[in-house]
């Protein structure tokens, strides 16, 4: 199913990192991907809950600070190492592709 495809896809990305980069570069690339997805998770607090409950203002403020600081870190990481953008883009594209596949499947 989709879980197998997601696992295989991200495993392939991890293997590509291991075999084509030094440990320092691999950790930098993985760190950037983790920063991106954790910022996207925090940004999810800005969307109202499905049951209509509002997220407290303090939580949204903290999420805003986190998202902005993550964007700042990614910006400087990518300006110092432009190939980092390719890894972040590859991980984001894979995640969007797997999400699209999962969305098409009946519940």
Describe the structure.
The mean pLDDT is 85. It contains four helices and no strands. By secondary structure, it is mainly α. Helix 2 (23-43) runs antiparallel to helix 3 (57-80) and helix 2 packs across helix 4 (83-104). The chain is flat. It starts with a helix and ends with a helix.
Mind describing the biggest β-sheet? Answer: none
| Regions with little confidence, pLDDT below 50 for 5+ residues | none
Query: Cα-atom Rg, whole angstroms?
Result: 16 Å
Distance between the termini: 13 Å
Task: Note the overall shape.
Answer: flat
Mean pLDDT over all positions: 85
Strand content range: under 5%
Question: Strands, helices and their partners?
Answer:
Elements: H1 2-20, H2 23-43, H3 57-80, H4 83-104
Helix pairs in contact: 1-4, 2-3, 2-4
Summarize the structure.
With 107 residues, the protein is mainly α. 80% of the residues lie in helices and 0% in strands.
How would you describe this structure in keywords?
107 residues, mainly alpha, 4 helices, 80% helix, flat
